[in-house]
Specification:
Largest sheet: 8 strands, parallel
Strand content: 15-25%
Radius of gyration: 19 Å
Number of helices: 11
Distance between the termini: 52 Å
Shape: globular
Bound molecules: zinc ion
CATH class: Alpha Beta
Structural class: alpha/beta
Number of domains: 1
CATH topology: TIM Barrel
């Protein structure tokens, strides 16, 4: 019986998406996973600049901290503001006080100003993919904590996947990649099988047709939101971690959702399983075990209690012996100022949408 836990880990986030709330709807209602990407996320990321990215990341990080999440593995894309983008996200997260592991998502779907959803996998690596890869290399070589990001196999050529895998190995880091999230990426298993390593982070794996080396990041809320199906993480021998895929970073709530989604699929399952997925994120950030998060409920260390107790609030967060949240309020930054700046940035971002 305890009021406290370690700092929680969001093992797959997109901090760039924090300003999506309230964005104008696409002209055509998306009716498939691919059209959700085309109509929403690929419009949003193409409109980002340094300023809107900073406030998007600051808002997402601040909301994470206030929910007891002290570490975020982020996957970023801003095709018209690539260079330096990982430093901008890191600066925003440092200001808030959350730990990060950052990646830039390499993709061949852009060639100049032209975007295509159907990439010729036999084409040469695009200049845009090289620029994305260079951002990963620059950030990691400068001492940044990160992996090499790839959007997904289906938006990359074979050459790009080969080059990325080789570069990650040379840098001594893993690859952070969306894998078979939708049926559009069903060939990911076949294409990545010769490349994947144990230090890769494989995100979603909903339609993965074979086992791959690496850790699998399960994102139950996002998968439901995108109607891509149930990932059934228990079918894999891989370590499973929990992410949100950009829909906030309230990890206690994500674990509750992961439990009912799991239980919907299998009546013999228990809340211990998603609790393990949540704590598995600590292997990416061992220091979160020294963080102390105090909650409003006295059995927050019991998976069975958490699964059936709504509204458990984060009351305080201590990181590196500093109380970053006290009585539910951040001590090192002004939450209302971040919300105001983020709202102003959101207006600018939404006006940039094409
Ligand atoms: Zn994602």
């Amino acid at each position: 019986m305890s009021f406290t836990t370690n700092g929680l880990v969001c093992a797959h986030h997109h901090l760039y998406s924090s300003l999506a709330r309230g964005m104008p709807a696409p002209a055509r209602t998306p009716d498939s996973f691919l059209s959700v990407l085309e109509g929403i996320w690929w419009r949003l990321d193409a409109a980002l600049d340094a300023d809107t990215l900073y406030w998007s990341a600051a808002l997402g990080a601040a909301e994470a901290l206030c929910n007891g999440t002290t570490a975020i593995i982020d996957h970023h894309e801003s095709p018209f503001a690539i260079e330096g983008s990982l430093d901008i996200i890191k600066d925003a997260c440092d200001m808030v006080g959350v730990r990060t592991n950052l990646s830039y998502g390499v993709t061949d779907r852009w060639r100049g100003n032209h975007m295509t959803s159907v990439v010729d996998v036999n084409a040469a690596m695009s200049e845009e993919a090289q620029r994305g890869l260079n951002e990963n290399i620059r950030f990691i070589k400068n001492g940044g904590n990160g992996m090499v990001g790839v959007h997904a196999a289906f938006t990359c050529t074979n050459e790009t996947l080969d080059v990325v895998a080789k570069t990650a190995q040379e840098l001594g880091v893993g690859v952070h990649i969306h894998v078979a999230e939708g049926l559009d990426d069903a060939s990911a298993g076949e294409r990545l099988e010769p490349l994947a390593q144990d230090n890769w982070l494989l995100v979603h794996a909903v339609h993965l047709d074979r086992s791959l080396r690496g850790t699998i990041a399960h994102n139950p809320r996002s998968n439901m939101n995108n109607s891509v199906g149930y990932a059934q993480p228990t079918k894999w021998a891989n370590d499973i971690v929990l992410g949100t895929d950009g829909i906030g970073a309230d990890m206690l709530e994500e674990s509750r959702l992961a439990y009912v989604r799991l239980r919907e699929h299998s009546i013999t399952e228990t809340p211990e399983t998603p609790w393990k997925w949540l704590s598995n994120g600590e292997k990416f950030f061992p220091d979160v075990r020294n963080d102390v998060v105090t909650w409003s409920y006295d059995n927050v260390d019991s998976p069975w209690h958490v699964a059936f107790t709504p509204g458990i609030r984060c009351e305080s967060v201590v990181v590196n012996n500093i109380e970053l949240v006290r009585n539910g309020t951040p001590t090192q930054f002004d939450m209302s100022e971040i919300r105001t700046k983020a709202a102003e940035a959101a207006i600018r971002l939404h006006n940039q949408l094409k």
